[in-house]
C-alpha cells in the first residue's frame, strides 16, 4: 500500500513547482497592472484631485510630472546602486514601498503629501518592472523568453484598457482616493503572492558579470545602445500621434467627441493583441521581429500621412498604430536584456524604460511646438516620420549585423534558467 504514496511524491513535486511558478507570473502581471493603473489614472481624475487637495488643475498636473520625472531619472540610478541586492529581497522591499506610497496618496489632504506619495512610488516603478521582466525571462524556456517579457507589458497595456477606466470611475463616483485604494489593494495581493512563490535567493544575481563601472560600460555595446535608441525613437514617433489623439480625431477627421472613448477602447485592444503577436514573432527570431515591428509602426504612420482627414481610415489606422507599436515591446525589451545578460540586464532594461519615457516627453514637446505654431493637426503624423524612419533603419542595421547570432545569448539564458529552476526546487 505504500508504493502508490512513494511514486506519487516525485510526481506531485514538479506539479507544485509548476503551480508556484504560475502564481509567481500571475503576481507579476497583477503588479504590472497596478503600476500601469497608478501611473496613468491621475490624468483622468485630475479635477477631483485638485479639488480634494485644494490646488488648481494646473498645479495638480504636476503630480503626473512628478511621477514620470522620478521614473525617468531614478530608475537607472537606483538600479545601478541596488542591482547587487538579492532579487527577492529587492522586489519585496520595492513593492512594500510602492504599497506604502499608494496608501499615502489615498490619504493625502495636501499638495505636498500628494507629491511625496507620487515621488515614492515613482522611485521604485522601474525597479519593480525590471525585476518582474528579468525573473520571468530567467524562468522561461529560451524559445519563450519574449512571451515571458510580454506578460509584463501585457499587464501595463491591460491597465490602460481596464485599470485606468475603473480607477477613473471610482474617482468620479466614490472619491478620488478610491483609485489609489484600488492600486494599494492590487499591490498588496501581488506582494503576498511574491513572498509566497518567489524562488529563494541563493546567491544567483541578474548582474553577476562585473563591477558597476563595467556594467555601465556594457551599455555602450552596439547591440544594447542601438536597441535602446530604437526604443526611444519608436516611442517618440508613435506618441507624437497618440499624445494628441483626441484632437487629431475630432479636429483632424471631424469625428464626434462621443466616439473617442470607443475608439480608445479599440486602440487598447489593438495594444493587447499587438503585444501578444509581437511576442510570438520575437520567440521565433528576435532581431528580425524587432526590425519588422518597428517598420510596421513606420508604415502605419506613413499611411496616416497619406490619408489625412479620412475618418474611417484614421480610426482604423489609430487602432493599427496601437497594434504595431505595442508589438515592438517584446522584441525590444528581450533584445536589450539578452545582450546585457552577462553584465546587468536590470540596468539595461531600466535605461531602456527611461529612453521610452524620454521619447514620450519629446513627442509631447515637439507636438506642442508644432500645434502652437498654427500648423494643421491633420498632418501631425508627418511630424512623426523622421523618428520612425531612423528607428526602422537602426533596427534593420541590427538585423543585418546580428540576425544570425541568437544562439549565444540563448545558451547563456538557458544556464540562467537552470540556476533559477534549481533555486525554486530547493
Brief digest:
The protein has helices at 2-44, 46-53, 57-60, 62-82, 87-106, 111-139, 145-173, 176-197, 212-218, 222-242, 245-253, 260-284, 286-306, 311-338, 345-372, 380-402, 407-425.
Structural commentary:
Mean pLDDT is 82; it is low at 1-8 and 405-426. Helix content is 84%, strand content 0%. Helix 5 (87-106) packs antiparallel against helix 6 and helix 6 (111-139) packs antiparallel against helix 7. The longest helix is centred in the N-terminal third of the chain and has 43 residues, at 2-44. The chain has 17 helices and no strands. It is an all-alpha fold.
Shape: globular
Question: Could you tell me how far the N terminus lies from the C terminus, measured between alpha carbons in angstroms?
Answer: 29 Å
**Unreliable spans:** 1-8, 405-426
Query: From the alpha-carbon coordinates, what is the Rg to the nearest angstrom?
Result: 22 Å
Helix vs. strand class? mainly alpha
DSSP helix fraction:
over 70%
The main β sheet shows up as: none
Secondary structure tally, helices: 17
Structural topology:
Blueprint: H1 2-44, H2 46-53, H3 57-60, H4 62-82, H5 87-106, H6 111-139, H7 145-173, H8 176-197, H9 212-218, H10 222-242, H11 245-253, H12 260-284, H13 286-306, H14 311-338, H15 345-372, H16 380-402, H17 407-425
Helix pairs in contact: 1-4, 1-6, 1-7, 1-8, 4-6, 4-15, 5-6, 5-8, 6-7, 6-15, 6-17, 7-8, 7-12, 7-14, 10-13, 10-14, 10-15, 10-16, 12-13, 12-14, 13-14, 13-16, 14-15
Amino acid at each position: 500500500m505504500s508504493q502508490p504514496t512513494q511514486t506519487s511524491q516525485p510526481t506531485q513535486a514538479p506539479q507544485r513547482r509548476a503551480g508556484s511558478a504560475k502564481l509567481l507570473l500571475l503576481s507579476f502581471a497583477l503588479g504590472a497592472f497596478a503600476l500601469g493603473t497608478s501611473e496613468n489614472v491621475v490624468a483622468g481624475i485630475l479635477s477631483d484631485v485638485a479639488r480634494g487637495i485644494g490646488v488648481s488643475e494646473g498645479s495638480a498636473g504636476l503630480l503626473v510630472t512628478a511621477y514620470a520625472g522620478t521614473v525617468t531619472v531614478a530608475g537607472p540610478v537606483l538600479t545601478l546602486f541596488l542591482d547587487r541586492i538579492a532579487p527577492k529581497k529587492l522586489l519585496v522591499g520595492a513593492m512594500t514601498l510602492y504599497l506604502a506610497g499608494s496608501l499615502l496618496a489615498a490619504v493625502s489632504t495636501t499638495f505636498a503629501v500628494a507629491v511625496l506619495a507620487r515621488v515614492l512610488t515613482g522611485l521604485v516603478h522601474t525597479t519593480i518592472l525590471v525585476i518582474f521582466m528579468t525573473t520571468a525571462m530567467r524562468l522561461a524556456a529560451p524559445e519563450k523568453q519574449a512571451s515571458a517579457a510580454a506578460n509584463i507589458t501585457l499587464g501595463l497595456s491591460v491597465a490602460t484598457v481596464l485599470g485606468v477606466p475603473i480607477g477613473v470611475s471610482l474617482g468620479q463616483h466614490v472619491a478620488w482616493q478610491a483609485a489609489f485604494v484600488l492600486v494599494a489593494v492590487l499591490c498588496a495581493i501581488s506582494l503576498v503572492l511574491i513572498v509566497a512563490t518567489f524562488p529563494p535567493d541563493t546567491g544567483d544575481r541578474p548582474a553577476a558579470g562585473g563591477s558597476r563601472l563595467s556594467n555601465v560600460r556594457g551599455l555602450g555595446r552596439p547591440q544594447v545602445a542601438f536597441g535602446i535608441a530604437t526604443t526611444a525613437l519608436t516611442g517618440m514617433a508613435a506618441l507624437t500621434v497618440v499624445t494628441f489623439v483626441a484632437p487629431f480625431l475630432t479636429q483632424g477627421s471631424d469625428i464626434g467627441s462621443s466616439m473617442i472613448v470607443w475608439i480608445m477602447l479599440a486602440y487598447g485592444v489593438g495594444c493587447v493583441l499587438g503585444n501578444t503577436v509581437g511576442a510570438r514573432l520575437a520567440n521565433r527570431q528576435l532581431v528580425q521581429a524587432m526590425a519588422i515591428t518597428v517598420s510596421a509602426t513606420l508604415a502605419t504612420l506613413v499611411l496616416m500621412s497619406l490619408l489625412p482627414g479620412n475618418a474611417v481610415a484614421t480610426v482604423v489606422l489609430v487602432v493599427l498604430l496601437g497594434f504595431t507599436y505595442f508589438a515592438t515591446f517584446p522584441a525590444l525589451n528581450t533584445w536589450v536584456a539578452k545582450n546585457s545578460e552577462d553584465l546587468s540586464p536590470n540596468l539595461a532594461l531600466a535605461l531602456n524604460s527611461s529612453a521610452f519615457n524620454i521619447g514620450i516627453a519629446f513627442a509631447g514637446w515637439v507636438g506642442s511646438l508644432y500645434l502652437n505654431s498654427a500648423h494643421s493637426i491633420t498632418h501631425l503624423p508627418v511630424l512623426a516620420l523622421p523618428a520612425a524612419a531612423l528607428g526602422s533603419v537602426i533596427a534593420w542595421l541590427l538585423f543585418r549585423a546580428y540576425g544570425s547570432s541568437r544562439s549565444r545569448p540563448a545558451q547563456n539564458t538557458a544556464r540562467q534558467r537552470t540556476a533559477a529552476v534549481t533555486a525554486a526546487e530547493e
